[in-house]
Amino acid sequence: MLDNEKYMGRWVWNKTEQRRDPRTGRRRCFPKPASEWVIQEDKSLRIVPQDLWEQVRTRRKESEPELAWWNRTTRMLLSAGKSGEILPHALAQHIEYVLRRVEAEVGKLYTHVPETIHLKEIELTAEERRLVNFVDFIGEGRGSRTLAQALLESERKVGALKEELESLRR
Fold this sequence. Notes:
Elements lengths: L9 E4 L2 E5 L6 E5 L6 E4 L8 H14 L2 H18 L5 H21 L3 H27 L5 H25 L1
Antiparallel strand pairs: 1-4, 2-3
């Protein structure tokens, strides 16, 4: 709510566009440059007065110094480690909080892996089917130099897909 500019009467459209992702084939939202945004300001739609909006924004900037908190925590850890002190309980809680945040962020980074594995498995199945078709075609005595090259390329692609899937599953 505190970041929603609609409360101050400012409506912004056209911030993103949907395109097909070339990797997955699915439609995704992509950000547009700010120069292409459509902005409409209507003071009659304002719910929060401008001075109150600015006060809240200023106060949030002052009370959100995560980097400053991180620096303080790091200094405390380093000084406690040098002096051999036992870490205070509050500091231990901060460390747990940071570790949970790091774990959540790492989890976000790897959310695409199951989908990627599924897509690679589909691609591998299709390529293996293509490989079997090549072998059948050659077995019928209808081989050629071009077919042999396609067969080698297909074998190379199957090997690469198997390696990629193996690395994704680790």
